[in-house]
Design goal:
Layout lengths: L1 H17 L3 H28 L1 H9 L1 H5 L4 E2 L5 H17 L1 H12 L5 H4 L2 H33 L9 E2 H18 L2 H10 L5 H6 L1 H15 L5 H28 L1
Parallel strand pairs: 1-2
């Protein structure tokens, strides 16, 4: 009788821990957003200390390498540029805190044996996100900027407004960082029973088409070889996600 009672008790405890009112969820969400902002401010302080070096040697380097001339067309354009660098840079520096707060927000809905993965999930999420940022900076961004700089008539010089350049810069880096979270997302969804490795294997062929479309979207205008170079790491991510899902289901 005891083995039958134990699962019922676990589910009862799980329901009691996870049951929160709508207002309590809103309050918890507000608290986590505040903690994320605190971490972002702390990260921004670090970025401010090195902002000139970051702008000159990191943000503007891809433009110079592609031969792009940047122009500031607004009276306070560079002021807003540095504010943008401080905020986004602060969020990237504090990315472990961001993922930790997200995990803490969803943890009340998890069983006690699932909450022990907090360190693993936060560490893996951080590594995957930063890997995506590095991949985008070293491969995706140069391909995109080279195409933009060299497309069109030779009689027209392709100078970029600084705000447009920064929009491309941050969107490509942040987009790639989020896409590289696929293995972590696969782990979480598999642990809670929404995703299975069989499902991912079944739609592998569909994923190849989707990945090629995504590669074309992330690097508009690049040649087919460049798109394949971008698609290969994304397909590897998908295969890794299948392995992660399989391991997660097996543990369950």
């Amino acid at each position: 009788m005891a083995p039958l009672d134990q699962p019922f008790q676990d589910d009862e405890d799980h329901s009691a821990d996870a049951e929160m009112t709508f207002m309590e969820h809103l309050e918890e969400f507000r608290k986590r957003i505040i903690y994320i902002l605190y971490g972002t401010v702390a990260g921004a302080v670090v970025v401010i200390a090195f902002d000139s070096y970051i702008v000159e040697n990191f943000l503007l380097y891809p433009a110079g390498k592609s031969g792009i001339v940047l122009q500031n067309l607004e009276p306070f354009g560079q002021v807003f540029l540095y504010f943008q660098v401080w905020f986004i840079g602060g969020m990237i520096v504090s990315i472990p805190n961001v993922f930790y707060q997200i995990w803490q927000f969803i943890s009340p809905a998890l069983r006690s044996n699932e909450k022990k993965y907090v360190t693993l999930v936060v560490t893996a999420s951080t590594i995957c996100f930063l890997s995506g940022v590095f991949f985008a900076y070293s491969l995706m961004l140069p391909l995109t900027l080279d195409f933009a700089a060299n497309f069109g008539s030779d009689s027209i010089r392709n100078d970029f407004a600084i705000d447009s350049y920064m929009s491309i810069f941050f969107s490509v880096l942040l987009g790639a960082g989020l896409i590289f979270e696929l293995p972590v997302l696969s782990f979480i969804l598999s642990r809670i029973g929404i995703l299975t490795p069989e499902f991912m294997k079944k739609f592998r062929r569909h994923s190849i088409v989707g990945i090629m479309i995504l590669a074309a979207f992330l690097s508009p205008g690049t040649d087919p070889v460049g798109q394949v170079m971008l698609a290969i790491p994304l397909f590897i991510l998908y295969e890794i996600s299948i392995i992660v899902s399989k391991m997660s289901v097996k543990r369950s």
